[in-house]
Amino acid sequence: MKNAFALTNFNSFSNVFWRQPLGRGWKLIASAAISFNNDLINSQLQNQNNALVTSTGIAVLDAQNFDLRVTNTMWQVRGLVEKKIGAISAVRFGAEFWKFSDSNATRFSGSSYTGKTHEEYIAAFAESYVYITNELAFRPGIRMERSELLNKTNIATRVSLSYKLSVNAQFSFDYGIFYQTPERRYIRPWSPELTFQQADHYIFTYQHLSRDYTFRTQVYFKEYAKLLRTDANAVEAVDVNGNGYAKGIELFWRDRKTIKGLDYWVSYSFLNTKRLYLNYPISAQPTFAATHTSSVVLKKFWVKQMQNKTNLKRQNQISRIK
User: Fold this and answer.
1) Strand, helix or coil at 69?
2) 3-class SS of residue 235
3) Contact of 118 with 108, CB cutoff 8 Å
């Protein structure tokens, strides 16, 4: 038996951006976007001659015969107003609005099924960047979110504290509460009452930044709560009683000076994470999370060749002018 699969897709995205000084230190930034996606999916069970097999008497095989149309539409509008206070401090206010519409039509075993999910999401935030002293900076913020699909509202607080150790070195601590709506594909009209998934972030960062060298290390801990749980087939939402954590360290080093004409950087991260969510029967490491991740990037400049090409190009331009 063969599983034949076909997908026809059409998608589009449009975006517009606006920046406008308002005077007296005020600035406006606004953007709007719209996207559309349409998928036509056909799945068939076939024999060795590529002929359709309509029935085998085995449910898991017969379930491979279906047609599916999925349409997704999204509108988004964002706005930000910023006011400079003194030379380096600032205060910001912003809001955004999202409108989603997901629809699907499935034909399976001679029957048709349709479904539609509609979501209107609105958020507003305020934050400031204040220098308490020349070395100590404080950045508090608050964010409000409202989901029409969940019929829920949340308020998240975030704060950042940075201390400048020297001209090139800085230490910072960041804390924040982040919310996320469950993936809409798991939500059905008969789903139980759901709420926002939550993540609390604690991040410590040290950075040394100069003309020739960059070193950054980051230690973090993230705690997850109210994660979405699904049935064993990962098809429908069951509850939001999942939980998890992620902790680790990241290192980054960049050197532009030691080897003449060579710019290289090295990064490494260690991640320890487990989650009890979706259709996981126990708390386990997600398949997308790697315990160890590293990369090495080399950038080489051939300065003389680049200079010769530049000089030749300038000479040709002068000749044409003459």
Assistant:
1) strand
2) coil
3) no
Q: What is the pLDDT of residue 217?
A: 98
Backbone φ and ψ of 262, nearest 5°: -120, 130
- Residue 297: which of 201, 229, 214, 223 has the closest Cα? 214
The range of the structural domain enclosing residue 17 comes to 2-321
Span 50-101, pLDDT tens digits:
898 888 888 888 888 889 999 999 999 999 999 988 778 899 999 999 999 9
DSSP 148: T
259: phi then psi, degrees, rounded to nearest 5: -105, 115
Mean pLDDT of 242-249: 98
Other residues' Cβ atoms within 10 Å of the Cβ of residue 227: 21
194, amino acid identity = L
C-alpha 113: how far from its chain's center? 32
- 148 Rama class: left (phi>0) / alpha (psi -120 to 50) / beta: alpha
Backbone Cα Rg of the chain: 27
Torsion angle (degrees, nearest 10) of CA 307, 312, 318, 319:
170
- Please report, rounded to a whole number, the percentage of residues in the chain having pLDDT higher than 90: 69
The two three-digit tokens of residue 124, written as one number: 């507003």
Measured distance CA(315)–CA(312) in Å, rounded? 5
Maximum mean pLDDT: which of 25-29, 52-56, 232-236, 301-305: 25-29
Question: pLDDT, tens digit, for every residue of 139-188?
Answer: 999 999 999 999 999 999 999 999 999 999 999 999 999 999 998 888 88
Structure tokens at 91: 């205060």
Maximal CA-CA distance, the chain: 85
Q: Is the CB of residue 92 less than 8 Å from the CB of residue 128?
A: yes
Residue 176, class by beta-carbon neighbours within 10 Å (0-12 exposed, 13-18 middle, 19+ buried)?
Answer: middle
Total number of domains constituting the chain: 1
CA distance 195 to 199: 13
CATH number at residue 38: 2.40.170.20
φ/ψ (deg, to 5) at 48:
-70, -15
